[in-house]
């Protein structure tokens, strides 16, 4: 073991790379987690994988974990809805990413959009579909085309684009496969962009250009022909988008690192979509692509994220 490796092991202690879990995004999390684990181990960190929250609880009870690199995705068995964060706060174990409040708000697309609206931050018009309400009436009030999505899922799970009334029922049936509220949102026609957040910094934006019509699950994690243009906008526009993304991130109480997804219409107006508090770290993932534009390679990115847990411990 080199002196550097020994210093790193002492600095971070025993690190649990929390991956997998039981959410709808399990496979993506496993892929992300493998990449993070390999990078941390290569850097000399005493890191090992733990699959899901129940397995982590056993390790916490045994006192074998000093900090957690959370790369679980999603809710209800994922690590982005605040449940994991509450557990770790109770044990006094620092964790990468946002705390209970930030995680819970960001995971809930309805509440995060309500916060943004209250602060005058631009987000697409939407309504919540609750049991017993007239589906067609709500959709017509919002206007076609629209998007139907589960309020608490990620990775484009359960999302449909609806252009005419006769397709609405099937879209709602798909979204209802997932727990929680359903969201109807006005479809913004334009460019899809994303902004990574690292500490107090907005990374260069990425404009996503799928080979197909939409940036769906296949385009995100399977296809090799999706284009990622970084920076996604000209300098001044990119700076303005970065400011909006940081404001949205802070508004819902997030911290550490994350990713803010945005639609930009043909007139150049930006609309906030959602915040991801444990973004993907796969070969197709966007935060590593943006960080690389600033000379931050994958290994350094993982270490910077992990170092944020030291600041969390030092905070009063």
TrEMBL record:
Its EC number is 6.3.2.4. Mg(2+) 1 binds at residues 261, 274. GO terms for cellular component: cytosol. It catalyses: 2 D-alanine + ATP = D-alanyl-D-alanine + ADP + phosphate + H(+). The keyword Magnesium applies. It is an enzyme of class 6 (ligase). It comes from the Bacteria. Pathway: Cell wall biogenesis; peptidoglycan biosynthesis. The active site is at 25, 155, 285. Keywords: ATP-binding, Cell shape, Cell wall biogenesis/degradation, Cytoplasm, Ligase, Magnesium, Manganese, Metal-binding, Nucleotide-binding, Peptidoglycan synthesis. It holds the Pfam family Dala_Dala_lig_C. One of its GO terms (biological process) is cell wall organization. The keyword Manganese applies. One of its GO terms (molecular function) is D-alanine-D-alanine ligase activity. Its cofactor is Mg(2+); Mn(2+). PROSITE patterns: ATP_GRASP, DALA_DALA_LIGASE_2. Gene3D superfamilies: 3.40.50.20, ATP-grasp fold, A domain (3.30.1490.20), ATP-grasp fold, B domain (3.30.470.20). It is found in: Cytoplasm. Binds 2 magnesium or manganese ions per subunit. Mg(2+) 2 binds at residues 274, 276. HAMAP family: Dala_Dala_lig (MF_00047). Cell wall formation. This is D-alanine--D-alanine ligase. It comes from Pseudomarimonas arenosa.
């Amino acid at each position: 073991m080199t002196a550097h490796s020994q210093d790193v092991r002492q600095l971070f202690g025993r690190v649990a790379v929390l991956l997998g879990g039981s959410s709808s995004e399990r496979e993506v999390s496993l892929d992300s987690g493998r990449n993070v684990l390999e990078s941390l181990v290569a850097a000399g960190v005493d890191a090992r994988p733990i699959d899901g929250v129940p397995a982590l609880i056993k390790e916490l009870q045994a006192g074998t974990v000093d900090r957690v690199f959370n790369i679980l995705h999603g809710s209800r068995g994922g690590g982005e809805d605040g449940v994991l964060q509450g557990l770790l706060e109770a044990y006094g174990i620092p964790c990468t990413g946002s705390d209970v409040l930030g995680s819970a708000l960001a995971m809930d697309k309805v509440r995060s959009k309500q916060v943004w609206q209250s602060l005058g931050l631009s987000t697409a018009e939407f309504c919540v579909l609750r049991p017993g309400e007239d589906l067609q009436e709500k959709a017509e009030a919002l206007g076609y085309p629209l998007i139907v999505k589960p309020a608490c899922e990620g990775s484009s799970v359960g999302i449909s684009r609806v252009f005419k009334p006769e397709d609405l029922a099937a879209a709602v049936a798909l979204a209802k496969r997932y727990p929680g509220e359903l969201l109807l949102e006005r479809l913004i026609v334009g460019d899809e962009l994303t902004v990574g957040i690292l500490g107090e910094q907005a990374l260069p934006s990425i404009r996503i250009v799928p080979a197909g019509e939409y940036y769906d699950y296949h385009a995100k994690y399977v296809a090799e022909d999706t284009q990622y243009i970084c920076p996604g906008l000209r300098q001044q526009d990119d700076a303005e988008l970065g400011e909006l993304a940081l404001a949205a991130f802070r508004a819902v109480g997030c911290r550490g690192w994350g990713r803010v997804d945005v639609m930009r219409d043909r007139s150049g107006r930006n609309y906030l979509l959602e915040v991801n508090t444990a973004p993907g770290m796969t070969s197709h993932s966007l935060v590593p692509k943006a960080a690389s534009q600033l000379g931050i390679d994958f290994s350094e990115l993982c270490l910077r994220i992990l170092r944020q847990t030291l600041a969390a411990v030092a905070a009063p």
